[in-house]
Amino acid sequence: PQGASAAHVGEILLQPRHLAGQQTPVGLDLGLARAAREAGGALAVSAATGEGCGPLIQHLAALVDEGPLVTVELESSDGEGLAWLYRHGRVLDRRDADGGAVILRTRLDTAALGRFEQMRPRAVASA
Length: 127
Description:
The chain has about 130 residues and is α+β, with helices and mostly antiparallel strands. It is built from four helices and six strands; from the N terminus they run E-H-E-H-E-H-E-E-H-E.
């Protein structure tokens, strides 16, 4: 999309659900895991068992967690704003406040925080 920024997150080596000649799903192949390590930071993930998803999720979370911790207050009816925060940041805590507001603690990278502040200038309580 126009104006979107992308970050290189590394390589993910995805093992197919079945290895050639096998009818049952298999766990992560040791050769694939070794190849991932040798590829310098690539992550190996098994499509059959989900093995390797933990390190992948931690890696992706670390990319988002580099941003500042931000407290945001939105009206509970602002579904678009809430969805945007979940899509572009990492929501760490969400609680309902009096008067129909929702208070979220989230991490956004600096570019996403700038975009959100332009969209909802009064929503960011602290950064």
